[in-house]
Amino acid sequence: MRVVLWVKPQTSLLALLLGWLYTVGAFRKRRPKEPPLDKGFIPWLGHAIKFKKNPAEFLEVMRKKHGDIFTLLVGGNYIHFLADADSYEPILKESPDKLDFDKFGSMIVLNVFAFQPTDSHHHILKKISKEYLRGKGLAVLNKVMMEKLKTVMLHSWDSGEHKRHWQQDGVFHFSYKTIFQAAFLALFGTELDKENAKKNTLTQCGEFFGNFQKFDHLFPQMALGILDPQGKKDTERLRNFFWDKLSVEKICKKDNISKWIAVQDQQMAEIGMTEKMRTQFMFLLLWASQANTGPAAFWVLVHLLKYPEAMKAVREEVDRVLRETGQEVNPGSPIIDVSLETIKTPLLDSTIEEILRLKVSPFLFRSVMQDTDLKMADGREYIFRKGDQLLLFPFLGLHMDPEIYPDPHTFRYDRFLNPDGTKREFYKNGKKLKKYTMPFGGGPSICPGRFFAVSELKINSTSEIAQWQWEAPLAKVVPQVKNGFRLRMDLRNELST
Ligand code: HEM
User: What pLDDT digit, counting tens, does each position of 330-369 carry?
Assistant: First the structure.
């Protein structure tokens, strides 16, 4: 006899609903010692919509509601936010068995660049970056960067429709494109075909830049795996473009490739990475090395143009450097050349640090691999639950803290200097801070390109200030990343070459 179990339709629906509510976390309750829990009103999504719209603003609202530590439901994930930067250190030092920094990053790399990085890849990246993006390796790269910046500037001036006359461009486009092209040439080398090398490479750089911006625009949706059908088509096309142009086969045929790229690729090949993966990795390196530097260069220039007292002070400093290095910017004189090892520019350094404080707001993710205790700086103790995510957002917890930075939203080019020009120290609760800005992240996942990034910004700003004269409609300055404002510019030394 067959035994048939019949379930009443209402019962099965109820069971399904309960099962679904359970899986979307609707029944989760705050356990003892866990941070305050806020699930919002929409099952599974929780606070996803508001969070996606404006994360910094939303987190500030939540901080006012819950204090400096809380847990939010965001698109099916329980995310602990910690705003108290004083308590970051134990988290950044915690072992990956408890708080893993790779898991989340690897998911993003897979979604965006279509390959799964391993510990060995990461180890090579760290090792080679330490060798070639710091110390002596960095000095070599800085020199090449200066050379390439000259090439790009000359080309941009040369190719202007009305040579020797004012050219017009958007600030965002001008500053991002200039630093992008120079860094691309410095890191990925130039064409072997000597005859047309300069022209071809710069034309190719222009195409690269356009496609890079389109790709970067789609990055957040790609990272979260929420592309619409058109977005999927566009990313497919753009990825194929970069995989073709950055194919290992083509890169290997180039001249003057930086050691950072060449040695990494060689070591990746030695551990058995396929050619396809090496090409995908090249694209990742291009993106990582370019996506943040261009916008930072734009913000530096925009603030110098908007605040004439800052421009005046920094320009005087740059002019002093030129005098000390025996250079001048006069009609017919060559493009300037500075070596960061021999110049001191405290005001420009402070300006760059201030821009990184004001405008760079990285999210630092850790995956909670097992229930993990946190003892905060003020002695409070919490537990993070296994399977959750932890998010540090130093922009809110550190960069915008009015106790550390009075009037934190205001741009002050000399904020990082004492009146006598020495470097300032920063305090919280009467304690001197070891880390007072974190634009490059922290702990084992800290940006390996941070020293080169700052060098690039210095070299680029020095050249912009020394070499170009600007005419911008300052009254209308509204610094927005997308459009910026347009400026008219000319080379101060009206080159005759
Ligand atoms: C202003 C410019 C830059 C900013 C604000 C920036 C910021 C960051 C941040 C926040 C991270 C993640 C850190 C973390 O998760 O803790 C990162 C990772 C990374 N950055 Fe940068 N970066 C910049 C420029 C550069 C440059 C110029 C290079 C290379 C030449 C570079 C190479 C990388 C790489 C390869 C990673 C991934 C590291 C890993 O997976 O361990 N970055 N960057």
Answer: 766 777 788 888 889 999 999 999 999 999 988 899 999 9
In three-state secondary structure terms, 138 is: helix
Number of domains in the chain: 2
Cα-to-centroid distance, 292 and ligand 1 (Å) = 8
453 touches ligand 1 (CB under 6 Å): yes
Whole-number Å distance, alpha carbon 43 to ligand 1 midpoint, is: 35
If you take atom 36 of ligand 1, which residue's CA is the nearest one?
447
Among protein residues, the one whose CA lies closest to atom 6 of ligand 1: 440
Rg (alpha carbons) of the chain, rounded to whole number = 25
Supply the range of the domain harboring residue 182.
119-359+443-491
Distance from Cα 284 to the centre of ligand 1, integer Å: 11
Dihedral (C-alpha) 70, 73, 76, 80: value to the nearest 10 degrees? -10
Ligand 1 centroid – CA 445 distance (Å): 9
Where residue 49 sits, what CATH number does that domain have? 3.30.43.20
Distance CA 442, CA 449 (A): 13
Instruction: Count other C-beta atoms under 10 Å from residue 83's C-beta.
Output: 23
205 annotated to a ligand binding site: no
Distance of CA 34 from the midpoint of ligand 1 (Å): 32
Name the pTM for this structure.
0.89
Q: Is the CB of 446 under 6 A from ligand 1?
A: yes
Domain-located, residue 437? no
Q: How far is CA 220 from CA 7, 111, 117, 235, 473, in A?
A: 44, 10, 19, 12, 33
Q: Is the pLDDT of residue 24 over 70?
A: no
Q: Decide if 369 is inside a domain.
A: yes
**Is 131 within a domain?**
yes
CA 187 to ligand 1: nearest atom: 30
- pLDDT reported for residue 161: 46
Other CB atoms within a 10 A radius of the CB of residue 433 amount to 16
Atom of ligand 1 nearest to the CA of 443: 16
* In the chain, % of residues over pLDDT 90: 61
Instruction: Write out the two tokens for 473.
Output: 């409609």
Report which of residues 197 and 240 the model is more confident about.
240
What end-to-end distance do the CA atoms of the chain give, in Å? Answer: 98
